[in-house]
User: What shape does this take?
Amino acid sequence: MTPIRLYNTKTRRKEDFVPLDPANVRMYVCGPTVYDRAHLGNARSAVVFDTLFRLLREVYGPDHVTFVRNVTDVDDKINARAAATGRAIRDITDETLGWYHEDMEALGTLRPTQEPRATEWIGEMKEMIADLIAKDHAYEAEGHVLFAVDSYADYGALSGRSIDDMVAGARVEVAPYKRNPMDFVLWKPSDVDQPGWDSPWGRGRPGWHIECSAMSYALLGQSFDIHGGGNDLMFPHHENEIAQSACAHPEGGFATYWMHNEMLQVDGKKMSKSLGNFFTVRELLEQGIPGEVIRMVILGTHYGKPMDWTDKKRGDSAATLRGWFAALHAHGFGPSMVALLKDCGDWEQDPEFLGVLANDINTPGAIARLHVLAKGHTAPALAPLAAGLELLGLVHDWADLPRLAGVGAGPEVAEAVRVAVDALLVARAAARAERNWAEADRIRDVLTLAGVQVTDVGGQAQWQPGPEFDPSKLEGAI
Ligand code: AMP
Ligand code: ZN
Assistant: This one.
């Protein structure tokens, strides 16, 4: 089994990854707040953890990995959007989640095993809040329930800050009912026009942090393997998640490995909705930039380093991918060949490629290795390139290969023409079998004249329309 190493934010070290249960490797990642289209920064986080998910599935088996990514569908930004547009909250969140799925799918991400929506887990959140109050880690004040940071000695350990530093450095909301300015909200009251649920503390709604603690506990248990998200969430969100979970379930370990992707930036600043310096994934797709190219640009930088989107990176990634896909296409790769390779057990990852990727998701290193593998001159020699591209999520349907290779952009081929060319190829094979070389050559010349490109793959002829394709030249050839 390929050993995986991951940089653990909690210990600030790269560590060997040892799952609690190799038969069920468990990962939780903080997902989108659904009130608007995902921007490229959100996409970076989704692609990074999708790549880790794919690696875990490769190493432990697809049925042995559980990946939970939450959907925050109760949030003041959503309420504000509803108030501004007059639309129902559920309409907005359903629509936005649909967009998120579409856009992330275009980037080749797999659906997580579960995508809990916060509004469907309010009962579990209330239970955890009541438990925290019972254990003296939380208190009720003026319709709010607050977590008492002084009740948890390790508060701040993840981000390495003391409570005093935080108070000095953070723009905390100072409220008279807070015992410590760093105390954070678990439950807050709702006005009549805000979404709310009945609770022992009055009609209200949960604070943001409690949803991840409650839903990860419900779906993954009190101890699981990996917790991920962007490093903008380390403080306060992840710090607060840890405090809640550790105090509610002191016997559990919560997450063993904490992973944080660095930010996608614009001119040195984090891309974010609030700064207004963002562009959406949809905008890039609508400019005609294929999802595979966007994903390749993202994978071109290690997740632990800040990165910018540049036009040069887009151009270079597009050219590299087109070259690789064209080589695979020319060597007969497609759905049937890949299925055949998989059936015969000839679909294996290059050990060096896998080793580099497993070393803290070193995607630029893995891509460098693909450049070497792409030098193969035969279909079997290129199989590890194809397998690597599939593992990195850069191709999901091998029927797409002509489009990806840029050869599908040619003329549409009518069904009757397709049948005619297939028939000519059968006739050519029959002529060859009968050693009727004259007839075989005649058919070859007809096909060449009509601009049909034929490649022989394992004795099997495959064809595609070339740039000079002219089906009228096939007439009367049979
Ligand atoms: P949000 O919808 O803003 O709550 O974010 C969803 C996910 O995207 C979280 O894991 C964030 O940490 C991540 N994220 C937000 N902005 C960026 C960015 N500029 N670069 C990378 N990840 C980001
Ligand atoms: Zn979270």
Notes: The pocket of zinc ion (ligand 2) is lined by residues 30, 212, 237, 241 (CB under 6 Å). The chain has three domains: 5-261, 269-404, 415-474.
